[in-house]
Amino acid sequence: MPTKINTVSVLGLGAMGHAFATNIIKNNFTLKVWNRSEEKGKDLVEKGATLASTPAQAVEGSQVVILMLADADSTVEVIKQTIDALAEQAIVVQMGTIGVEATEQLNKYLKENRPDIGFIDAPVSGTKKPAEMAQIAILASGDRALQSQIEPVFAAISKGSHWLGDVGAGSAMKLVVNSWLIGLVQSLAESHCLAKQLGFSPETLWSVLEGGPLAAPYAKTKLEMIEEGRYPPQMQLKWALKDATLAAKAGGEAQMPNLHSITALWQAAVDAGLGDKDLSVIAQYLEKQ
Ligand code: NAP
In terms of C-beta density within 10 A (0-12 exposed, 13-18 middle, 19 or more buried), how is residue 88 classed? Predict the structure, then answer.
């Protein structure tokens, strides 16, 4: 019989991690949280979570430790601070987008330093709102023997998981999904620009697409943001640039020329100070060129 999971820690309470933590506590797990800037955990304490002041304190006694940090460097930095404090046989679930290489290095580090710990590579597809509604998809890989133990936690935060193979496979699929998403956002931004130049409003563009196979709900929400000219981050442009860079590097320049040119363009937009805004701000950047 697999051990029933009751105790979970979430390290990283940004747009995604905070949504995970909220849904985990709603589903009656005992939750400990940690975030570099403590204020992001205060509302979770009111809901019953324990807010730890260090990553090591946050993982003590927890059966599952979820990492949802910005990038590979911050993830490695934080896991190193927890390594001696992880409970015997705990399961570490890495859910940020850190790429395949960093995921494999993290797995190796854990195996060498804490061979009793299980590791699941589990980045996600979906953004802030779907995460708040537990409607993201989890791209899981690693030890399948842990699947039945971890699924109740995944069920609390997602609409389902896809088990894709050995550690690294989840992160590899995440790069593929991101390549799709990044191309879609860039194409949307360019089509929006073109529509305006040719005298069409965003509403007219959407009315032509609506109801047909091109009318992705994701595109609609991004088009609405572009139209309003407000870009509260569902996914910050700087993280989307990180993801574009990871996918472009994995695919090679000859095979993915668009992704390489998008990376250069998005880097210029981040350098222009737009990195903290939602990635759809790229439409505004293009218009101003
Ligand atoms: P976010 O809102 O910017 O949150 C980033 C988190 O990382 C915050 O908790 C931040 O702490 C922490 N952090 C950053 N640098 C750190 C450091 N050096 N040491 C410790 N903590 C650090 O980002 P997010 O949107 O939740 O994304 C998190 C991860 O999920 C990223 O890898 C992103 O690519 C991926 N992802 C995002 C989405 C999305 O749509 N948002 C979707 C799928 C995957 P502070 O609060 O103190 O800054």
Answer: exposed
Q: What is the mean pLDDT of residues 252-280?
A: 97
108 catalytically annotated? no
Per-residue pLDDT tens over the stretch 149-163: 999 999 999 999 999
Tokens representing residue 236 in the block? 């910050």
Closest C-alpha to 158, from 195, 123, 179, 133:
133
pLDDT tens, position by position, 164-185: 999 999 999 999 999 999 999 9
Is residue 75 within 8 Å of residue 94, measured between CB atoms?
yes
Q: Tell me which residues have their CB closer than 6 angstroms to ligand 1.
A: 12-17, 35-37, 40, 68-71, 74, 77-78, 96-97, 124, 127-128, 234-236, 239, 243
Burial code of 147-157, b = ≥16 C-beta within 10 A, e = fewer?
A: eebbbbbbebb
The radius of gyration of the chain from alpha carbons, rounded to an integer in Å, stands at: 20
Q: Tell which atom from ligand 1 comes closest to the C-alpha of 17.
A: 26
Confidence class for position 2, pLDDT limits 50, 70, 90: confident
If you count them, how many residues does the chain have?
289
